[in-house]
Amino acid sequence: MCGIVAYVGHREACPLVLKGLKRLEYRGYDSAGIALMNGHGLRVYKKKGKVAALEQELAARESSGTIGMGHTRWATHGEPNDVNAHPHYSFHRKLAIIHNGIIENYAAIKQALLKKGHTFTSETDTEVLGQFIEDIWENNGGSLEDAVRLALQEVVGAYAIVIMNEADPTQLVAARKGSPLVIGVGEGEFFMASDATPIVEYTKDVIYLNDYEIAVIKNGLLTVVTLDNTTTTPYVQKVELELEAIEKGGFDHFMLKEIFEQPRSIADSMRGRVQADSGTMQLGGLRDYLDKLAASERIVIIGCGTSWHAGLVAEYIFEELARIPVEVEYASEFRYRNPIIKEGDIVIAISQSGETADTLAAIELAKSKGATIFGVCNVVGSSIARATDAGAYTHAGPEIGVASTKAFTAQVTVLTLMALAAAKRKGTISESLFRLLLAELESIPAKVEKVLQAADKIKEIAYIFTYARNFIYLGRGLNFPVALEGALKLKEISYIHAEGYPAAEMKHGPIALIDEDMPVVVIATKDSSYEKIVSNIQEVKARKGRVIAITTEGDTHLPSLVDFTIEIPKVHEVLVPLVSVIPLQLLAYDIAVMRGRNVDQPRNLAKSVTVE
Amino acid sequence: MCGIVAYVGHREACPLVLKGLKRLEYRGYDSAGIALMNGHGLRVYKKKGKVAALEQELAARESSGTIGMGHTRWATHGEPNDVNAHPHYSFHRKLAIIHNGIIENYAAIKQALLKKGHTFTSETDTEVLGQFIEDIWENNGGSLEDAVRLALQEVVGAYAIVIMNEADPTQLVAARKGSPLVIGVGEGEFFMASDATPIVEYTKDVIYLNDYEIAVIKNGLLTVVTLDNTTTTPYVQKVELELEAIEKGGFDHFMLKEIFEQPRSIADSMRGRVQADSGTMQLGGLRDYLDKLAASERIVIIGCGTSWHAGLVAEYIFEELARIPVEVEYASEFRYRNPIIKEGDIVIAISQSGETADTLAAIELAKSKGATIFGVCNVVGSSIARATDAGAYTHAGPEIGVASTKAFTAQVTVLTLMALAAAKRKGTISESLFRLLLAELESIPAKVEKVLQAADKIKEIAYIFTYARNFIYLGRGLNFPVALEGALKLKEISYIHAEGYPAAEMKHGPIALIDEDMPVVVIATKDSSYEKIVSNIQEVKARKGRVIAITTEGDTHLPSLVDFTIEIPKVHEVLVPLVSVIPLQLLAYDIAVMRGRNVDQPRNLAKSVTVE
């Protein structure tokens, strides 16, 4: 996820674009850049860090001009630095391009261009696309928009792009597939942006560009063509949402937006990595270390909070598929012990921000003992990503809500891919199970989508339990960490004391808490421990607890036994946490909202815990 | 702990002794036996199981006679079966003996008797003592009481014994050291028992025999001599306590009694195993497997509830001292996975009752995968003790309170000894640290005693928080499992929702729960993580949480920072859980009592969970 802003018209472009970029910083903020044009040609300024850093940089530079475009980045390819920031020049500097999304086949395109003698200054997929377009434009002799269209016909991936042409200070070419792009239509001026927030103070008339459409602004006129070269008439509509609501994509809170983004973010975390059709997969960041991972005798996973829960899920998956013993440690506990690390041991560190202080310190300790460290982070180029030997990014996009949701499912997805890769290399997984799991993985986004459609039903249940003082969450096997995660969500944002337990452990103590006032959320999907957890539910019901069960679609038994059920689609047992956690996120969110809590900024908590 | 009853007078002894034994079954109930005498000589009947089983057995037997003694057993040496049950005959069957306690040097005495041609039918220390007394009596030519006195002068250990003499149907000889013995004085009749409950319905006049005293009843007369042969005048007093209170040793609840028993029960769990003076230790049950333990590459500990917490403590100790990686698993989760067990892996199963169904099933699974299994149980001869390859009993005596207290400290003690033995064998511990820890272990009972003396202060704190709705418990390192255990105690008996967390993990979510209504118990003893946990306390105080800190004696800093402090003596860091858990047990107990809960039988819970 990145933020895009562009302008062409009669105003000074630079301050307008910078202001717009700040509105979009929720989409990413690891580096920013701007392209401007006047008599002095096409100029690009870029800077690592927030938009404010770019603004400071520009203060002393020539920045006049009435056309410009800017970008605030959330790194996907290449670490966040000045060079990798957008815009990118094309090879002969005739064009500049900004891009939000991922070009999956960029490596193949790059290879072809390298053969033609091209060189690249950055590690980004975006620079490759810019050079590719310029190359076609130069060699095919058509218009710039033709070149864009031909280039995009070759591209696999998701994108929203805007291109400036050094030869024409009235021209902007934009296109989208999968990533959003809004065009604002003013009096003799046009605005483009990833959402309407940078636009609404100038005009309420907007066009939401559709997938496979190319927009061309030239000499004050807008035309839209499709990738197959059909001219379409864009639909101009009025923006009526509040600024803040637009940033949140129409959702009341970032957390809710992020919950609903999960079909996309889970897909993003697999994008370019899983090919279910051919039964293959690869994790670029692991390539050189896969043998080591597969050969390891012991894996230690470290993390904090939600990341620690993702680690617990991974423990089950690694042990089951790759038959490697896994220990999951709280980073804060690990770092203050004298942990046992032997040669060949692998440490996997999980952190959304990649800046978690305890986890970073634990990595340094493990390194000093000779461990090989893998990182699973969301923020590209973060401290943890840089401190590890290898790893895989989760590509979930920036997470703004303090209570982590899409980062968790992305972590679990990536850790599952790591386990699959290790199992495949080690030969502990059959070809048929491997293929089955890849196919199942690809089906997860649609299944998550289906759960999200039940949001209203979950809201009804949340309403009933708005004023509960306590909650217990129970699960077995892979759903035990999900129970912990569900309880943590409720704690974090509603301030209700919720606790997760392995269901069978309850009778060794916590069952004393159960009475008619105690809501008990039980994840009781149809898998190998289904019969056992039904028994645990009966134990709770015998003490008059009120049971909310997460069940598998078509389960006709549990509804008669429990007070409320929330159905999820049938999922392969190994992957069930990716789907079973969704209703728990919604339940926590709804209860917190009904209690009037500040969901996106719960009391006492910080998004990224950079202190120990 | 066992129960003892004896009678001589004009009544039928058999029904009186059986009734008395039933009153004493809280002291142990794995087997029972009785000795009776009339014209048919000295007859002994014994039976595995509860007293009721013995009673049934006796229904068809000759059981008349006005002298008799009985015993209900809690096994310490030898599994519970008919043969190991008391009474035991002496070698020439002139005497029968019942015994409560442990003869620590029985092996040496047995060796000497074996050389003389003696044989033994049971594995008990008691049979050894009986034969030893008879041997002295036969060879020294004095009276039976002289022989008892001379024998006991040689004995190291704790005991309450009663002896019947085949040659004299009016004679009972009893002695005590360390284990209780009460003598009831009636009209021409005498009663003896471990406590007054079997006696009070016949007479209120009782004598509490003192340590090192021998009581002889002969021809209707009682004399008391000391071990050094001074005749003393026994002090006859009136019993005024209620029956139930006597069983509970004057405490309001079994749980409280068991909390206060810990200086003794911890000592019992080390008895005969630790010789701090000579810097040596041994664990009989481990002898043949110690090399295997020391050579293991990985230990998996399984348990449920409180036993699982003891396992978490052991994880730290094993890793720190013996440098063997340890994983601690919930038995219920372990058994339903396909756990990875490799050759050379050791599984340690922990269970107070030795009958926990989930743990037993987990053992069977681990066995089927070729693991070597060690057991740490309290009940000798229990299913788990029989299912394991090796192990060590905790010797804490029967635990009646459903919320486990003395079993936990005994488990931690024994697991510490196992870790020390492994570390010593492996050479990962220095001689000086080894000796230091043995000496520190010996000092633990006195330190626990000191904490118990602060019970009134803890009660005052409990009073203030009687109506708290939630509690958080925090600890780091070895005190993290103690925090979990403290929270579990409160949950179990007060039904307050309490949760334990590693202190530094709190900021990753649970800190959202903290406000001025939230009591937070922090174990903040002066050890390596002291500074860190002080920071965690400050985080809590900054959110207005109310902090009860468990501190080390002489800490002058924390009292100014927190709301309440409870001091414990300075303890070596590795052993701190044995002492830091005590105030948490008392706090939970006091709060539960003030809330009017049924402490010994909390709702929904069972003492020994023999279902999964």
β-strand percent of chain A reads 15-25%
Stretches with pLDDT under 50, minimum 5 residues of chain A = none
| Greatest interface | A-B, 60 and 60 residues
Distance between the termini of chain A: 29 Å
How are strands sequenced across the largest beta sheet of chain A?
A: 3-2-4-1-10-9-11-15
Rounded to an integer, what's the Rg of chain A over CA atoms?
A: 25 Å
Mean pLDDT of chain A: 93
- Count the helices of chain A. How many? 20
Percent helix of chain A: 25-40%
The number of E-state strands of chain A comes to 27
**What is the oligomeric state here?**
homodimer
Which structural category do the helix and sheet elements of chain A fall into?
Answer: alpha/beta
Q: Can you tell me the overall shape of chain A? A: globular
Main beta-sheet strand count, sense and barrel state of chain A: 8 strands, antiparallel
Domain Glutamine amidotransferase type-2 (chains A, B): 2-220
EC number (chains A, B): 2.6.1.16
Main location (chains A, B): cytoplasm
Active site (chains A, B): 2, 607
List keywords for this structure.
homodimer; 612 residues; alpha/beta; eight-stranded antiparallel β-sheet; seven-stranded antiparallel β-sheet; cytoplasm (chains A, B); glutamine amidotransferase (chains A, B); repeat (chains A, B); glutamine-fructose-6-phosphate transaminase (isomerizing) activity (chains A, B); aminotransferase (chains A, B)
